[in-house]
Amino acid sequence: MPSMTRTPAPSAPRARILDDIERDDNARGLEPDDDAAFHRLVQHLVADGDRRARLAGRRARRTLAEQAPDHGRRLLLTVGRPVSAAEDACPICGYWRCRCVNAGSGAALPASGAGR
User: Fold this and answer.
1) Cα 44 vs. chain centroid, distance in angstroms?
2) How far apart are CA 56 and CA 58, in angstroms?
3) What pLDDT, in 10s, does the model give residues 60-72?
4) Smallest Cα–Cα separation from 94: which of 109, 106, 82?
5) Could you give the CA distance from residue 87 to residue 82 in angstroms, rounded to a whole number?
6) Do residues 52 and 46 make contact, with C-beta atoms less than 8 angstroms apart?
7) What is the rounded (10 degree) CA torsion for 101, 106, 107, 111?
């Protein structure tokens, strides 16, 4: 019968390095919060923009309507709006640009898209 060697169980992990890092971190004290730093940056940019606009004899633009008056937002989804066949994939082949062999056969396609 072969003799079995016994591997000793590993000792409990020790966090000497992690303890040192945590001790150094605690000694430094509180670090500035990233959120607070971001808000300080935004406040600085707003104040700088206001100053530049005032020097140019204008008022800083704040909203999208002020920045781009001719911009119109297109609704992406509307509840209950029927989808026309031109806005949907081909119901036969499933591609947006039809690749059907039967596309020129004159087969009637459904009015509302029934793509895959």
Assistant:
1) 25
2) 6
3) 888 888 888 888 8
4) 109
5) 10
6) no
7) 110
* 84 beta partners: 112
The two tokens of residue 65 are 């309507």
30: amino acid identity, one letter: L
Q: Two tokens at 60?
A: 């800083």
- Nearest to 92, CA basis, from 107, 75, 78: 107
Tell whether pTM > 0.85. no
Find, among 80, 81, 85, 77, the residue nearest to 112 by Cα: 85
Query: What is the per-residue pLDDT across 6-42, written as a single tens digit (0 to 9) for each?
Result: 777 766 666 678 888 888 888 887 677 777 888 899 9
Query: Residue 105 is encoded by which pair of tokens?
Result: 């056969």
Residue type, 47: A
